[in-house]
Structure formats: structure tokens, C-alpha cells
Specification:
Layout (H helix, E strand, L loop, with lengths): L1 E4 L1 H19 L5 H4 L4 H7 L11 E6 L1 H7 L6 H13 L4 E4 L15 H27 L7 H23 L12 E3 L12 H6 L8 H13 L4 E5 L2 E8 L5 E7 L20 E4 L1 H22 L12 H9 L6 H20 L2 H13 L6 H39 L3 E6 L7 H14 L4 E2 L2 H20 L3 H26 L1 E2 L2 H22 L3 H6 L26 E12 L4 E3 L8 H19 L3 E6 L2 E6 L8 H14 L1 H10 L2 E3 L4 E13 L10 E3 L1 H10 L2 H4 L3 E4 L10 E11 L6 E8 L2
Parallel strand pairs: 2-8, 2-9, 3-4, 3-9, 10-11, 17-19
Antiparallel strand pairs: 1-20, 5-6, 6-7, 12-15, 12-17, 13-16, 14-15, 17-18, 19-21, 20-21
Helix pairs in contact: 1-16, 1-18, 4-10, 5-10, 6-7, 9-15, 10-14, 11-12, 12-14, 13-14, 16-17, 16-18, 17-18, 20-22
Length: 749
């Protein structure tokens, strides 16, 4: 099998297939092919490496334990206030509430200046009173027996100071602690959220009816310093944003064609994605702190706190920290730390030992009655139990505080109901918030660049396929479609940049399909060239006069270089008169053709060795080796065309009308096998090999190329005088792909 590689056909094939692929690439500008949505996007998204969400987002979940301890959300104002106070103390960056809370009843900000001055004045007086008493005792101004009354006076003065401080704290102005850092789900929407709303809609969240999502995103914008927003096609620019919380820089966020951000969500369940913390830890903290306060209060009433050795009672510090006034948040945190430091020092210091020793000394008194002894033993046991309970409570509370501070510090805390659905609105809005903070978002390959890439792919593929046979081009085209779609898919999986694999595959497929189709039409196969004629096979034994007797000195099976000439008659170039015999008209026409053209070939030194219907095969140089057989074949071909007048006359005498130009010649030169053939009705001596096959094919291409004589490049090495060879195309076998150019042989003008 052979096919023809035509330069003109190849150029047309390249242009048509490339233009088709480029036209398909124009779909890159359509929303359907550039939108990062649909089943294919979702399937490839699952192949992306798992992302690690940024640490700034923390979901505070009202799980079963917290619900059991404090009830279902929304909680009352007091419970929420307790939780917000803990979050503030633990350096939460912001708090987002998903429950209704009465504004103004949450927390009070800081101690005012009046209360601060009162603290300093009252404790200065207490310190001076204590110092005066001890100096008087040291100098002997106070008798030992009068010491107890002076101590009672100091305690009385301390109680009065406490009352005056409480009165001063009652004049505080109520306000919300961290007011600028608490984002309530019912707060009005900020104007900067307008660019995020399309993203909420894409995620299945209503643009305006999901206050929690808006509150989360508003907290994120405030975290970024509320940067100036500039929108441009495909991008959103945040000017001078606090990208790392400290330094300002511009943040570029890619947008899709609808102006929406494409966030990349953490995979898996909520447990394996965003950080989560049970609200029960906050509830537990409040309970433990309340228990600790009760124990300290009981110790104060029992007089134990007087052994703390600190100038300020831990209870006073605690009560101030529970109702802060106008001091700043950092000062308030310092007071809270001071409370736990003093309490820990008191419970782990020598106070318990000294109290125990005091009771032991009392038990040794000889005047102690049995009832008094029992009372002192009870007091001693109660003191030990009180210190033990307070110590255990403090130990558990400090461990809990370490955990809370480690998890909450610098976090945007989102208070939410129990999370069971990873695709809930909480997870969706958190995913979008994480994308803004950490840059976890998808990008869409720009439409213009996508068009250029897919168009280039179509052109490149068209150039490659044009050099292949239709069958090979089809295989290569299928491979190109698979590879292009796989490359686009891997590109998205590895980079997060969406280049639609269907666009790449479609451009390659359209270019390949058209290339194969046009190649199939333009290629010329040997079976097609032969089928254009009637291919009537005749028994050569009916025409013995056409064949000379073989020379006896020609060895059988010898290979020699020869020029093979094939002369073909197009049967559509002859017609018969109405009175001719229908049964014998084809055979009669071919007989006349064989006799006439055969005679011309013999006269020009040709050895006729085969008749295949309308094709006559003859060789030059096969029987008698030597140079010049190319020239002989070319001259014989010219003589065949010149002998058409005789052929036309013989047809006319037989009642057959011959259309001039219906005979064409093909010549090829090369090694041929000459020898006998045992097939009946064929001559005993024939030429075999690729050379006769190519000559036969060329004889059938004359009409297509408007040329009467076609020769191969091997034959064109020698051109007879007065002729010229014009290069046409290449004839390529299907198997080894080593083709030969062929030429049109014509007389010089």
C-alpha cells in the first residue's frame, strides 16, 4: 500500500486543521470554558494536595459538653460575657459571635482614672498604717498586750478602704471590652464586603442573608487593616494591607469573570481542617475560677489571707478584674496575671504551714478545755481542707489557662454551634476567610493566554500530523488529546491554576480530526488508483503475438537494475458506437490497445512482460544489462503518446470512439527481480518488486496531476534531450515510510 504526500495538499491540510483548532480555542473567552466550576473541576480539586489552614482562624464549637454545661446557643449575656472576658485575657485577635446578645450588657472596658487614683490612695494608707504599727511595737511605744487592739483597728481601716474602693468602682461607665474586636452576626454590613458577596453566592451562601459569614469576613478585613480596595478585570488589589499583621503591602487576589474569589477549602472533616476548640473549656474556666474565688472568700473570712505576705489582697485584685474600668487592656491583663501569681504564691507558700503551727500551739495550751480543743482541731482540719481544695482548683485552672492561651492567642475566634457538616455555612465562610488571610485560593488561567496556548497547540499538532499518514495521524491525534488534557489536569493539580482540560483536549481533537479527514481525502492509495479503472484481467495466452520469445541465456531469478514502464488506458476515455457488440466491446478495445501500444513499445526496445487489463508493463535493461535504459524508457513513453494517432485510428475502424489524452505513462527505475512465474496464463518471465508497483501507480496519477508521463526521482537522474522534469510530490509506502519523489516529464517549450 502506498499513499501520496503532496506539498500542496499538505499545506492545505495544515491550514485547515490549524484554523479549526484555533477557532475551537476561541472558546477560552467563553464563561463555560473559563469558569472554575463543574464536575471536572470538582473531581480534579480532590486530587490537589491537602492544604493546611492558617493558624489565625479558630472555631469555638458549642459541642455536647458545652451544651450540657451551659445550654444551647444562644447563651445569656452573663455567660457570653464570661467567655468574652476569657478570650480577651488570652489575647484573642477578634471574636465573631453567631448568637443574639444584648448590646451593652457584655463587658465593661477599663478602670477609669478616678478608680485608679482611689486604688493608689487607699493602699498607700493601709501600707502606712501597718508600717506605723510595727515601728511602734519595735520602739516599745505599744505594749504587747495592746497589740491585738491595734491589729483590729488596722483591719477595720482596711475594710473601710475596701468599701470606698467598691463605691468608686460603681461610678464606672459601662462599655464593651474589645468593642472594636467583637463582630456580631447582627451588625450592619460594612461597605468593603461588597466584593466578597459574589464569592458567598458561589459557595451556596446568600449574599445578604448570612450575617455570620459577613461578620467573619468583616473581622478579616479589619485584621488586614481595612485596606483600600481597587477592582480590575481578573484581580482585586488591597492597598497597604497588613499581610503579616505588622508590615503593610499590596495584596493581589485573583477573581473569576463574575468578580468572585475562588477559595481553596481544607479537605476532609472539620476535625482535620480548621482548628477547633470546645466552648466547654471556657465554661469550665468560669466554673473553676468561681470555685477558686469562693474558696479564697472563705479563707478571707477565716483570716487566712492575712498570711499571704502581699500588700494587696488577691480577692481585691480579682474583684477589680471582674469589673474593669478605664485602664487599658494590657494593664487589665497584668492585673489578672497578678491575681493568679499572688494566689499561687499564697497557696504554695508558708501560709498553710504557719496557720497549722498556730493551731498546734493553741492545742498545747494547758488551759484549753476539751470543747475548745475539739473546736481548734476542727478549725485546723478545715484550714487544711480549704488549702487543699483551693490548691487543686488552682492547679487545674492553670493547666486549662495554658491550653486556652496557647490556642486562642492571636486567633480570630468564631463562636459557632456544633459542627457536623464540613460544607456548612460556617466552614464555607471560614474557608473564604482563610483564603484571604493565607492566600489559599485558585486562579484561572487568563482567557487570552489560554487561547494562545491552545491555539499554538492546534497549530503545532497540525504541523506534526501533516507529515504522517492518515492512520498514523489518527493514532498520534488520539495520543495528543490524551496528553494535552492530562497536562492541563496535572497543571491544575500541582499549581492550583485552572486551565480547562476540555479546552486543551478540544483544540487538539478538532485539529487532529480535520487533519486526518483532509489527509484521507487528499491521500492517494494504490488500491484506489487501480479501482478507478475497470482492472479487467485478460488471459495473456490469447495474445501470443505480443510477447517475444525469451532469450535462453537469461538466468532465472536474477536481480538487475531496470527501468519499468507502465502504460495505462483510462476506459472512461473511450466510447462505443451503438451497433457494436456489448459483450465483446471491452475485450475488443483492450485488444486493440494492447496490439497498438505493445507494437510501439517493442519498436522502441521494450520487453513486454505483463498485461493487467488496461495497464501494459514493459522493462528496459532487464534482459540486457547496461546503461541508457532510463533514456530508452523516456523515449518509449514519448513514442507511446505520439502513437495515439494510430491508436485512435484503430479504435475508429473497430467502431470505438477514442478521446485523445486517455493514455498515461509511469516510469520507475531500480533493482527488479526477473524470473519465471508458475501462475497459469502469465508469461514465464516477469519483473517483480517495488519498481513495477510504483510505475503502475504513477500511470494512474496522470489525470490527477494533468501530466501524461510521470517518472520517479531515480528515473529523473537521466533525462533525454529536449525534455525536462518538474518535481511534483512524493509516493510513500505504508510500511517502511521511505518514499520517492516523482516528476512530470514533458518536452521543453
Amino acid at each position: 500500500m502506498y499513499y501520496i504526500k503532496s506539498r500542496n495538499d499538505m499545506i492545505a491540510r495544515i491550514l485547515i486543521s490549524a484554523v479549526t483548532g484555533i477557532l475551537f480555542s476561541l472558546l477560552a473567552f467563553s464563561e463555560a470554558f473559563s469558569s472554575a466550576e463543574g464536575p471536572l473541576f470538582q473531581a480534579l480539586e480532590k486530587k490537589r494536595p491537602e492544604i493546611v489552614p492558617g493558624r489565625e482562624l479558630l472555631l469555638l464549637e458549642a459541642d455536647e459538653e458545652s451544651v450540657a454545661a451551659a445550654g444551647s446557643l444562644p447563651w445569656d449575656s452573663d455567660t457570653i460575657s464570661e467567655g468574652l472576658m476569657i478570650l480577651t485575657e488570652m489575647n484573642a485577635q477578634a471574636v465573631v459571635l453567631d448568637s443574639a446578645v444584648e448590646k451593652g450588657n457584655l463587658l465593661y472596658t477599663d478602670l477609669n482614672d478616678k478608680l485608679r487614683d482611689s486604688f493608689e490612695r487607699e493602699f498607700t494608707l493601709i501600707k502606712d498604717n501597718i508600717k506605723t504599727l510595727f515601728n511602734a511595737i519595735r520602739l516599745g511605744s505599744v505594749r504587747p498586750k495592746d497589740t491585738a487592739s491595734f491589729v483590729d483597728d488596722i483591719i477595720s481601716l482596711t475594710d473601710k478602704s475596701k468599701m470606698r474602693l467598691m463605691e468608686a468602682s460603681g461610678s464606672r461607665v459601662p462599655d464593651r471590652m474589645m468593642y472594636r474586636h467583637i463582630y456580631h452576626a447582627e451588625n450592619p454590613l460594612d461597605s468593603n464586603l461588597r466584593f466578597i458577596r459574589p464569592s458567598l453566592s458561589r459557595l451556596g451562601l446568600p449574599e445578604r442573608s448570612d450575617p455570620l459569614a459577613h461578620a467573619v469576613l468583616q473581622a478579616v478585613l479589619d485584621r488586614l487593616g481595612n485596606p483600600a480596595v481597587e477592582e480590575s478585570p481578573g484581580n482585586l488589589l488591597l492597598h497597604n494591607a497588613l499581610s503579616d499583621g505588622k508590615n503593610k503591602s499590596d495584596i493581589v487576589i485573583p477573581l473569576d469573570k463574575r468578580g468572585a474569589i475562588l477559595p481553596e477549602f481544607p479537605k476532609g472533616t472539620p476535625e482535620s481542617s480548621f482548628r477547633r476548640l470546645s466552648l466547654n473549656l471556657l465554661v469550665r474556666h468560669s466554673i473553676l475560677e468561681s470555685e477558686l474565688y469562693s474558696e479564697l472568700k472563705a479563707m478571707e473570712q477565716a483570716g487566712y489571707l492575712s498570711w499571704s505576705g502581699e500588700a494587696m489582697s488577691p480577692l481585691a485584685i480579682y474583684e477589680f478584674s471582674r469589673k474593669p474600668g478605664s485602664i487599658d487592656t494590657e494593664e487589665w491583663r497584668r492585673l489578672r496575671k497578678q491575681f493568679y501569681r499572688i494566689t499561687a504564691g499564697f497557696l504554695s507558700g508558708n501560709a498553710e504551714k504557719k496557720i497549722d503551727e498556730g493551731y498546734s500551739l493553741l492545742l498545747e495550751s494547758p488551759t484549753l478545755t476539751p470543747d475548745g480543743k475539739r473546736n481548734i482541731l476542727a478549725l485546723k482540719s478545715a484550714a487544711g481542707s480549704s488549702f487543699s481544695r483551693a490548691g487543686k482548683t488552682l492547679e487545674e485552672l492553670l493547666k486549662l489557662r495554658d491550653t486556652l492561651e496557647r490556642e486562642i492567642k492571636s486567633s480570630i475566634c468564631i463562636i459557632v454551634p456544633e459542627l457536623k457538616d464540613p460544607l456548612s455555612r460556617v466552614m464555607a465562610s471560614s474557608g473564604l476567610a482563610d483564603a484571604l488571610l493565607s492566600g489559599h485560593y485558585f486562579r484561572i488561567f487568563p482567557s487570552r493566554e489560554a487561547f494562545l496556548v491552545s491555539g499554538f497547540l492546534a497549530v503545532f499538532l497540525s504541523l506534526i500530523l501533516a507529515a504522517l499518514s492518515p492512520v498514523s495521524a489518527a493514532i498520534a491525534g488520539i495520543a495528543a488529546v490524551i496528553l494535552s488534557s492530562a497536562a492541563a489536569s496535572l497543571f491544575f493539580v500541582n499549581t492550583g491554576i485552572w486551565f480547562n482540560p476540555l479546552l486543551a483536549a478540544g483544540s487538539a481533537a478538532s485539529a487532529a480530526l480535520v487533519s486526518v479527514f483532509t489527509g484521507s481525502i487528499s491521500s492517494y492509495r494504490i488500491n484506489e488508483s487501480i479501482s478507478r479503472q475497470s482492472s479487467v484481467s485478460l488471459q495473456l495466452s490469447k495474445y501470443p503475438s505480443l510477447y517475444p520469445t525469451l532469450e535462453s541465456d537469461t538466468p532465472e531469478g536474477e536481480k538487475r537494475e531496470a527501468s519499468i514502464i507502465a502504460v495505462r488506458l483510462r476506459l472512461n476515455g473511450i466510447t462505443w458506437s451503438p451497433d457494436s457488440s456489448a459483450g465483446n466491446k471491452v475485450i475488443s478495445a483492450l485488444h486493440i490497445y494492447h496490439e497498438t501500444i505493445g507494437a510501439v513499445l517493442r519498436e522502441n526496445g521494450a520487453f513486454l512482460y505483463a498485461l493487467e487489463g488496461e495497464v501494459i508493463f514493459a522493462s528496459f535493461g532487464g534482459r540486457i544489462p547496461g546503461k541508457g535504459h532510463r533514456i530508452q524508457a523516456e523515449l518509449a513513453a514519448s513514442a507511446v503518446l505520439e502513437g495515439e494517432d494510430k491508436l485512435s485510428e484503430n479504435f475508429k475502424n473497430a467502431g470505438i470512439v477514442y478521446n485523445a489524452g486517455s493514455v498515461s505513462v509511469g516510469i520507475d527505475t531500480g533493482l527488479c527481480g526477473f524470473g519465471s512465474d508458475d501462475i497459469d496464463a502469465l508469461p514465464e518471465y516477469i519483473a517483480s518488486g517495488d519498481v513495477p508497483a510504483r510505475a503502475g501507480i504513477l500511470s494512474g496519477l496522470g489525470e490527477r496531476y494533468k501530466c501524461r508521463i510521470l517518472i520517479t526521482e531515480d528515473t529523473a537522474e537521466e533525462i533525454c534531450e529536449g525534455f525536462e522534469a518538474v518535481k511534483l510530490d512524493r509516493l510513500i509506502p505504508e510500511i517502511d515510510k521511505k518514499g520517492k519523489y516523482f516528476f512530470c516529464l514533458r518536452r521543453r517549450q
